[in-house]
Amino acid sequence: MALLPDLDIRTVLDVVEENFAKVSLKTYAIRMIYIGEHSAPREYMISEIQRTVDVVNAGYCDVHIRGLLVVYDSYFVHILEGSEDTIHRLLRFLWRTEVEWIDYMDRKDEEHFQALLKAALEAEAEGDPFEMPVRPAVKPDRKMFKRLKLLMIYHSIQTLLFKGWSAILARPPSLVGRLDLYAPLAQHMEQLKVCLDKISKLCGLATSEEHLSFEGMSAADPKMDALPEVALLDFLMQSQHILDLRETMHLHRRVDDYKFYFESVWPLPNHFTPRHLYKLKVDDSFVEPLPVMPWELVKKEVNEEDEDYEKQSGSSSS
């Protein structure tokens, strides 16, 4: 009896692992692009995000965080590459960094107030003119990230553009023309495409030049076309058609309970009621009487024949 040849048996997992090995990855990677408005100093902003990236990459992660951060005076553009869990962990750490920054600024305000109060008391004791400081009734509404909007996520990317994470300072040129915030959806998507095209050029410059810098460049320099204008970023952050980053990240790994229609509305509208699946009372005000089905007619005729047979048999026996 001839033996069967050895078959090359591979599972789907084997194929997936081979594909990951070809692109030097351990799991699926994504590329996320988001924009924001910040209120912290630019150098402090870069140092805090750099520290957060280092903390995330120092821990266990399938694909390390890579990307580029472009910081303006009040706005920024952040391109991130990595595994989905790693990027979401970085964003959670950034929210924690924002809370710590708010606490730090509150402590600085309190120390400044105490210093002014101490100086006023010393001046009063020495008989010098002084002005007693007044504590503000309402604390300032501080946010390190005032607004954050998610522009695009590319899933299952095969090629990582960046070798590491870096940040640069820039001042973009002014936008010629005005953008209508109440324009139709098509114009909002057109401006989003314009912004993504500029960011794509920016990524090309970052990968082609080892040390990318926009310091000292004039507005006529061709490289400045790769920087999204401040007016364009502000338009996209005010647009109701662009997803909020915080709300989007809140949905990560969350599966909401499905609410059925009949749990929200009662009584049911007539055209939503499956009347032919179950029988309801005829006197229900929100459902019409059920039609008589053919098998019910047959059953009724059989019952009438049985009653006639019993009457005939009873009369014959008497």
Helix vs. strand class: alpha+beta
CATH class of the largest domain: Alpha Beta
Give a count of the beta strands, DSSP E runs of length 2 or more.
6
Largest β-sheet summary? 6 strands, mixed
Shape: extended
So how many helices?
7
The CATH architecture name of the largest domain reads 2-Layer Sandwich
Query: Which percent range fits the helix content?
Result: 40-55%
SSE sequence, one letter per element = HEHEEHEEHHEHH
Cα gyration radius (Å)? 35 Å
The neighbouring-strand order within the major sheet is 5-2-3-1-4-6
How does this structure look, described?
The chain is of the alpha+beta class and 318 residues long. It has helices spanning 12-22, 42-58, 84-126, 185-208, 230-238, 245-250, 294-317, and strands spanning 29-38, 66-71, 75-83, 145-157, 165-169, 243-244. It folds into two domains: 12-250, Alpha-Beta Plaits (2-Layer Sandwich), CATH 3.30.70; 260-318, no CATH class. The chain is 42% helix and 14% strand. Strands 5-2-3-1-4-6 form a six-stranded mixed beta sheet, with helices on both faces. Helix 2 crosses helix 3.
